[in-house]
Automatic annotation (TrEMBL):
InterPro entries assigned to the protein according to its UniProt record, in alphabetical order: GIY-YIG_endonuc, GIY-YIG_endonuc_sf, UPF0213_domain
Gene3D superfamilies (UniProt xref): GIY-YIG endonuclease
Matching SMART domains: GIYc
UniProt record similarity statement: Belongs to the UPF0213 family.
Organism: Pedobacter frigiditerrae
Name of the protein in question: GIY-YIG nuclease family protein
Residues in GIY-YIG domain copies: 3-80
Amino acid sequence: MERGGCVYILTNVFNTVLYIGVTSDLFSRIAEHKDKLYPKSFTAKYDCNKLVFYEMYSTIEEAIGMEKRLKKWNRDWKIKLIEKNNPMWLDLYSEDL
């Protein structure tokens, strides 16, 4: 049985730093970022814990492929992607994920 995946983008309170990640359990992974479970990580260092974009995939391999593509995009393209579905840059994290 294949496991689905998710690509996500986090930012800080000022929307100045973008972090792209991939996971098979979005709710738990974002909770780890918010709790700074890994204090020496990039997201902890730059206080990136606001979920501004996510996209689900039927397999983790598809999600990893999209993550790799997104990391090559320039910042303007990433901002347009975020603002297409989340123009106010709201934190999309909730227990409904």
